[in-house]
């Protein structure tokens, strides 16, 4: 499955003017990196993939339509998925994009 191009457009619109943002195809989807660190991605599995501070992961995962990101059978701490049902409004999407961008900005630039 290809990533949701409309979701990518919505993410791009939210990140317009944000310094240091680069798009890159990753994980079969379209990722948005901030200073070289992945913040969010339109996932090839549908919905949004994002990075969050691992110390805040449980509080984010308490929200509906979220789950840990699993790669090769292993849960990745600080990596989350938000299914499409959790991204229906611009406010919902903006919340998750902010989480990803905030965490990416907290990391050293690559």
Strand content: 25-35%
Our measurement of the CA-to-CA distance between the termini, rounded to an integer number of angstroms, reads 30 Å
Spatial extent as radius of gyration: 13 Å
Spatial strand order of the main sheet: 1-2-3-4-6-5
How does the major sheet shape up?
6 strands, antiparallel
Task: State the oligomer.
Answer: single chain
What portion of residues is helical? Answer: 25-40%
Compute the number of structural domains. Answer: 1
Which CATH class? Alpha Beta
CATH architecture field = Alpha-Beta Complex
Low-confidence runs: none
What is the helix tally? 3
Coarse structural class: alpha+beta
What is the typical, i.e. mean, pLDDT? 95
User: What is the third-level CATH name, the topology?
Assistant: Aspartate Aminotransferase, domain 1
Shape: globular
* Strands, total number: 6
How would you describe this protein?
The chain has 110 residues and is of the alpha+beta class. The protein has a single domain (5-106), classed as Aspartate Aminotransferase, domain 1 (Alpha-Beta Complex). It is built from 3 helices and 6 strands; from the N terminus they run H-E-E-E-E-H-E-E-H. Strands 1-2-3-4-6-5 form a 6-stranded antiparallel β-sheet. Strand 3 and strand 4 form a beta hairpin.
Tell me briefly what this model is.
With 110 residues, the chain is of the alpha+beta class.
What is the topological layout?
Blueprint: H1 5-15, E1 21-26, E2 29-34, E3 37-42, E4 48-51, H2 57-61, E5 66-71, E6 74-82, H3 90-106
Antiparallel strand pairs: 1-2, 2-3, 3-4, 4-6, 5-6
């Amino acid at each position: 499955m290809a990533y949701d191009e409309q979701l990518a457009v919505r993410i791009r619109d939210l990140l317009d003017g944000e310094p240091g943002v680069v798009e890159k195809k990753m994980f079969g989807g379209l990722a948005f990196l901030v200073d070289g660190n992945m913040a969010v991605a339109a996932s090839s599995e549908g919905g949004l993939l994002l990075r969050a501070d691992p110390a805040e992961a449980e509080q984010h995962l308490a929200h509906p339509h979220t789950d840990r990101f699993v790669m090769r059978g292993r849960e990745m701490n600080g990596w989350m998925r938000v299914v499409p049902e959790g991204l229906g409004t611009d406010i919902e999407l903006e919340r998750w994009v902010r989480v990803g961008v905030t965490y990416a900005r907290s990391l050293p630039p690559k």
